[in-house]
Amino acid sequence: MKAHPTSIEGLLRIELDLQLNADGWFVESFHRDKLLAAGGPAYDVVQHNVLAIDRAGVLRGIHAEPWDKYLAPSAGRLFVAIVELRANAQFGQVECFELAPGEALYVPRGCGNSFCTLEPHTVYNFLVNETWSPERITVDPFDPELAIRWPFPRAELSYTDRDASNPPLTEVRAQLV
């Protein structure tokens, strides 16, 4: 496991040791001690969630919950956009990644997470260090200020009305000040 810092404080891009074999592959998608040894935080998982999506172009987010997240696909590929939503000098900064099996992200609380499936039959795992609660900060994934270049035109994306009606970044910024 190798952890690489990004331009957003605390956000780590993680390379996992994907081992190919005659039947497919094996990966240890999360190992607390190895994450710590690679420079990551001491991360105590409370809940492991799995989301399976049948088609490409499904978009979810942007959501910043009051917990840290460890994201790793086990099938398919994801486009992930992380937005800094903590009240600091980096507020509004966006980092985008493509993730496939063998790759992961550690997302600190306060950073908004969003993703779009790039392939059908994508399986997305996320581990969290707090149990679910409805508390969260949301932002419009299509906000021009964020300028996220989604991998499909908006008309071809599948998203919830709730996500599309999230407030723009300017409203979130005003609430944090």
TrEMBL record:
The keyword Transferase does not apply. One of its GO terms (molecular function) is dTDP-4-dehydrorhamnose 3,5-epimerase activity. Its EC number is 5.1.3.13. Gene3D superfamilies: Jelly Rolls. The record marks 132 as: Participates in a stacking interaction with the thymidine ring of dTDP-4-oxo-6-deoxyglucose. GO terms for biological process: dTDP-rhamnose biosynthetic process; polysaccharide biosynthetic process. Belongs to the dTDP-4-dehydrorhamnose 3,5-epimerase family. This is dTDP-4-dehydrorhamnose 3,5-epimerase. It comes from Kribbella sandramycini.
